[in-house]
Amino acid sequence: MPVTVLLVDDEPLVRAGLRAVLDAQPDIEVVGEAADGASVVPLVRRLRPDVVAMDVRMPLLDGIEATRAVLRSVDSPPKIIVVTTFENDEYVYQALRAGADGFLLKRSRPAEIVHAVRLVAEGESLLFPSAVRSLAAEYGNRQARAVLERAALTEREEGVLRLMARGLTNVEIARELIVGTETVKSHVSAILGKLGARDRTQAVITAYESGFVSPA
């Protein structure tokens, strides 16, 4: 079955460009489009896409609130990729904190766009650019530090979290640690459970906000 995608952007040319790139792939199918975040929830319920490519800045309902609405009101919600023009956009970081699964620049090359959709569909987050990591560090707070302290991660889990924060996939982490991919998946699952994180993105945000890892 192909990975199904819903495109959400107020610029028709951006949607057309993304559709052309994604529909050219045999394992990806664009099943719908929306020009504003206000249309996302009903479309997600009707089309049941695997991934939503969501512009972060839209006139009626921005990508932050649209992300919150999808995660709050849709059972088994799709993965959400935030799409924006600027990598140091604070809106992007707020969308990631709201539950988006990854980040993509509109100027990304076609191969990067395709890779992003496939990666998020498989449940692995995208690498945060350095500017977004710096924003996460600036949002450092006691709550995130308390969450990490209560989690009492093992030494191996701490190592896996650091590699997750670098943007490595499970396969890359397994290669780095010289262990099996299933072992890494078990560690990731344990980390998410201990941190109370919905997904890898939320775990990595906690890692940065708590100061456990730095953006350097």
UniProtKB/TrEMBL annotation:
Segments forming domain HTH luxR-type: 146-211
Keyword Phosphoprotein recorded: yes
Domain (Response regulatory): residue spans on this chain: 4-121
Keyword tags: DNA-binding, Phosphoprotein, Transcription, Transcription regulation
Positions of post-translational 4-aspartylphosphate modification: 55
InterPro entries assigned to the protein according to its UniProt record, in alphabetical order: CheY-like_superfamily, NreC/VraR/RcsB-like_REC, Sig_transdc_resp-reg_C-effctor, Sig_transdc_resp-reg_receiver, Tscrpt_reg_LuxR_C, WalR-like
PROSITE patterns in the record: HTH_LUXR_1 (PS00622), HTH_LUXR_2 (PS50043), RESPONSE_REGULATORY (PS50110)
Protein name, UniProt field: Response regulator transcription factor
Species of provenance: Streptomyces racemochromogenes
